[in-house]
Write a structure and sequence with these properties.
nine-stranded mixed beta sheet; 333 residues; globular; alpha/beta; UDP-N-acetylmuramoyl-L-alanine:D-glutamate ligase; homotetramer
């Protein structure tokens, strides 16, 4: 079962919108960051990771975002281009903004944390006027991610992108990706998450993220079925609710529900699990697989990335994904 | 013809949300403000004026807003209460915000301008958590006004109020009331006007205001019929487009359209025309009049207010309105 | 005794630097502001009042400051010019700043309060580059007032003016004029008051203002003699410490001390007492009177202004001052 | 010749005030940062480097500053303590500020650049109330550095520290350390540099830094002798003006002037030259060496640090310094 229809006469498969930043991953793991001394630099940010994952899987991928006018910004754009991602929608900040940073600390596979630098981040300086209607209508799908809603003008740029997507039948995927540190107020967060989700075809988030959105409306209980049905009364066709170790459940508008399993792997760190899941799940749906098969592809991609050092650079190719699905042990949960 | 249905088992007729401020109207008119020396103080702000107009016409009226913790703020709350407006939804700022001010300059009936004080205005400090679902569900209707969307947290408070209104079948009136000086960016303005309008039952604005909203979507022509039809595909039942001296036109979802005329009057100043029109038009609709009759009531109220010194204090009672409609000359345009 | 020497070959007697704003004085007195309905507009701001007082007394007066590009700003500049104040040093803001406002509430002669509008005030937008060395060196004296130190760039503009004054032997008068509402932090306030006072020849303030400055340095006791001596080790020649109803005391570097008395009057409000005192005291010193005679002139001017409705417009001419000193009852305290 | 006298009955030799941050030095040198992939983390910031240099040379060293409440902040405090620096004056930010970062790019020994992260930096959040008079009076000397003047409240904290130092006869060293990226306005910068320099005993800066300070006062020519004499009329005893490759010149209040030479070395990068110079020069002066010998010690320290990868961790011990001075080639310039 796969309810999505795509406008197939488009030169791009998917355009991601939002955060482009730098991960600085500690090379010395299993210790607190105070005791690490070197870091390796990678491109990061949820939509960047998903776009890289999509491109590795062979999708024609574009990006709408903004980078700092410095060495970090140039590194990001160059890396996207090396990964065959079209950067026509990536603009360069001229106000002295910096590239967002995420220093990762890996104390143990279960105990990872991130030290963020988000002040004056270039990615949040994307203006509505820098979002091109012509660019968006060239794509079958648009991916948005919640962090881009955290501040103006990026917030409004996302809403403009959504208007164009709706106008031109571009299927919209929304990876909630709620990061509290970039937001100032929980009610503010929930308002914009709800307004954006109304315009999306596929919504992917954790139970906690959906709870945050529902708390605004004084909805007390956490009921997956009810949560999904709220969005089916708007535009959604598929709603995926992730329950961490307990797996995920996808609902479709026609009443179907599908549970995913997990591929066994050697976990190095948990970062990147969500982004790799999203990129392969979307890839599965866009290449005509059933919802449950697409979920399995998402799980396979996630199990690859969490066994590697980076999030972005670790994204599998189509061949790696297939091989992993053939060889790794898949467990239902 | 009147397509609106109201939940009649509610203790309040209408709750207005948003700006509460002070007008300081020059007592010496027909000269530039440099040459005026005294000012008279009135309550002002579009939703405040509409609420006062509604209460004068006999509607059970409430307000959701925020006032400064000073003499101006207390004056506003006291004035609302004297006018029988329920102020349970009016909170008091504790951050040192001030009351917004509008100094009016009346050089001639055609040449009026306003000098605004909107920095650190208390009305824009209304938080989502200060909007009560219980309060809103006690009202048949909610009135929002665009200025409250100009900044956070008031912007999010309005969206929360809209969510509650939709949830509880409260009819929403939206007076666009676009004031460029309170906004920083035209695209930002248009994004939030469009998002709010999607959730409203009746939308009232000038042609220029609708143009501003459509420019974001690269809609070039100014076509009233098209403008109205955009909103009928969302939630709207009635869309009123005002063309200044050329009168207004109202569209209803069923395809009807209605043109208003104008009552002759001695114009002192043009301020307050829109607010008085809105309060009487809404009153007409809520008391079961046809759309065209309600428009005529709006025009009558406007012709009374523009012949008087203030906006708020000049609002007519039901008896004054009826007498004026019986005696003044009504012209179609 | 008068220790001050002036460079007499200068076209201007005194240039005031800093705040130019508007007072809106309640016309209905002896009641809270909630119950007043009309206000009269006057030029206000401590250095503006002192400059107007100086000009009325016949001094060739100039001003360095910034006004808003609106009707209030133009009114201020026009009023200064009508009072024979040179406005070559007054620039016009181009950033959309507004004119600072002070609404006065006169509940009784003893119970007056002010409601201030200081957000985005044009006077605090004065840039160092807008302070002209050529202009300052044309004056015998410079008057600064503490409020101009409250925020950048006005703060730096004052320090630049002080550098030029010291460089060109321009005598500097410092009226402390500490208004807590314009400052965010008491230590910050004290730092800049102390740095500025080091460069001044005459310092005039209340005991409370000097206490605020000394608290930073962990000086516990309030000792007038010690306070004055701190500044004599820098550049000061005269230090005046005001004790409200208990009169003032002036110290001179040579060890002299002088107590002022008070002229009996019919007090309407207490606003403007300090500014009128300063303008006539400075005038007395600059016209060669002894310190104690200059203090008496200050007291006479204050007693005139507090019996009238405004601060600025109430400033006496030389003739009014002389007549008042001849006729009013002077009491030592 | 050495004009400085120290209060020798103090438990600390020197307290540095100001910036504590992190250097992230590219491990792959001789290429643009876009092409580097790993970075090594060091403590950085001019006063931090000088304090570390002082402690390595055996001085009893303290610090007044503020660190972020995160892994970077804890790393800094731990590193200072490991280097025997007293951290009683180091407070921890509780507002969510981050640690300032400096990514270094070493394209060639002559072409180095820094990518700074200074938004919301914890070091600039030091409050005047966090500067302890009791702590400062326990030290013979205080070192301030210009960057701490860049923003409030750190700016005011420095002025408070200067007040305490003057009050308790603590000798003040001022390393100008002007970094344009942390300042918004050149006149603002010059105002505070000049106000601070008035209270310092030893001022160390480049010709360009002194020019920036003098431009404010419309001083056109760059005259070392005149520059030095300006400060001798205030409190300075020694003024050092650095001319890059052309060496430095030190002036003493008694009219003396001394030129330094340069030790030959294998330059890896130029960062850290100024800080290492300052730490050894101050050490020389505080241990009773002549000005010219202290300058030679400064040059020796600089030649060691610029041949190594870091700034802070590269600071020589007393033994290393002595050996280097005995073995390296010293050239007059």
């Amino acid at each position: 079962m796969n309810p999505l229809k795509f406008s197939n006469d488009r030169p791009l498969d998917i355009i991601a919108v939002g955060r482009l930043c730098i991960d600085l991953n500690a090379n010395e793991t299993n210790r607190p960051m105070e005791e690490t001394s070197t870091f390796t630099k990678y491109v990061g940010g949820s939509p960047a990771n998903i776009a890289i994952g999509s491109a590795r899987l062979g999708q024609k991928t574009g990006f709408i975002g903004k980078v700092a006018d410095d060495q970090m910004g140039r590194f990001i754009t160059q890396y996207l281009e090396k990964n065959n991602i079209n950067t026509d929608g990536v603009t360069i900040d001229k106000t002295g903004a910096v590239t967002g940073l995420a220093f990762t600390e890996i104390k143990s596979p279960d105990e990872c944390s991130i030290l963020m630098y988000r002040d004056n981040a270039a990615d949040l300086k994307l203006y509505p006027s820098e979002v091109s209607e012509d660019y968006i209508k060239q794509s079958k799908a648009l991916l948005i991610s919640g962090t881009a809603l955290a501040a103006s003008p990026s917030r409004e740029a996302v809403f403009v992108a959504l208007e164009y997507a709706v106008k031109h039948d571009v299927t919209v995927f929304f990876d909630l990706d709620y990061r509290p540190y970039t937001w100032t107020d929980e009610a503010e967060t929930a308002v914009y998450y709800n307004l954006a989700a109304e315009k999306c075809d596929v919504i992917i988030g954790t139970r906690e993220e959906f709870d945050m959105m529902e708390k605004l409306l004084n909805i007390k209980e956490s009921d997956d079925h009810y949560t999904a049905s709220r969005w089916f009364s708007h535009r959604a066709e598929i709603v995926v609710i992730k329950h961490g170790g307990a797996g995920s459940i996808a609902y479709t508008k026609d009443g179907g529900s599908y549970r995913s399993g997990i591929f066994r792997t050697n976990v190095l760190k948990t970062f990147g699990a969500g982004d790799s899941y999203a990129s392969a799940f979307i890839y599965g749906l866009m290449t005509g697989h059933d919802v449950s098969e697409a979920m399995k592809m998402g799980s396979a991609s996630a199990s690859i990335v969490i066994s590697r050092h980076s999030c972005s650079d670790a994204m599998p190719t189509e061949q790696e994904l297939t091989e992993h699905m053939d060889t790794a042990i898949y467990e239902t949960v």
